[in-house]
Please model this.
Amino acid sequence: MYLNQLIGQGGDIVSWLVWIIFFMVFFMFYPRLMLSQIMWKLEGSARNLENLSLKSKRMLYTEISKKPSKFVKDSVDRFFEFFIIHPISLDPYGVVKKLDHLIKNERERFEYFTDEVAPNLDEERKANIQMGMAAGIELNLLAKIVRHYIEMIKKTKSYQIAMIIQMQLPIIERIAKALFVGTKTLARGEPIGDATGAWMIARLNDGKGMKEIEEDIVMAEKSVEGRHAFLLKARGPGGRIGYPGKAVEKLIKKHKIARVITIDAAAKLEGEKTGSVAEGVGVAMGGPGVERSYIEDAVVKRKIPIDSIVVKMSAEEAIQPLRISMTNAYQNVMEAISRSISRTKKNDNVIIVGVGNTSGVGNNKKQAEEALKWVKNYEKKRTQSKKKKQG
Model:
């Protein structure tokens, strides 16, 4: 009687037992089935990332030499495992100097590598190979990290870790694709999004050239709205970042500076327009913060105001080819510079720094126009490629 009430009128005890067994088996094996499904997707993504890393290596082989030798291939493969151990920061005093020392060591290693594998390339091409290698190393590391977690999931059978990695995959894959395109663009010495600040300074410099005042940092002097402006950027058109902080510090020690203005690419939020311009205060400069620290220390000692002007783009856009929406920001950037220097007096000295990797961007207006021509051709090819895919 009680059993009939439990399973309902006309119920079948056998069917009821079958359903109970089914649910027990289902709940027992469901996590494993889900884990298998997730692992299948993760494995596919890991293989794609490893293929991108391998393609970036092969591309670098051919950029170094049309017929790369075994020595070149082995050297690139070995250098892809290059790493930096950050200094201990338990006692923060002196960390900037430690980081500065390591960054110099890193650049020396990259220079030694290119001198070893490509001794016949000119200085600009070597600089491009170094930047391409830097992006390739990041891509290789990303692929290795994903592979590490996949192998760990296989050993531990951890459904939770698998879920976390799966949720991060869309972002990881976006970054990986951007790094792959960035490796190719940098190795070929083509303009990238991060070169926007350098491009602005090059276009503003309508003189013949610039002189090097710090390692890989060049300067031109120009009158801007009645003020004496020092225009600074990394030396182009090879891929370089230089030491802008030390250059600014040197100028501040030598001249009475009324204001410092930094122009850089900045990470936009989703929904913001690429190429939009924003103004603020402080040093617009990414990276580990060493060069930024030199500027901040110098301006604080002399109480010099510092303005920042940023051209917004995503982190992926910053390492991919320069877009027309970014170069179109030139007029807005010039207006922002005008507003900034209007807060100084006539004949005052101001420093304007174009921050970022100057890949594909030279040092004067003529070379900036050449870079702009490349950007327009790239946009045209990109539009045609999209139409072909849609058609």
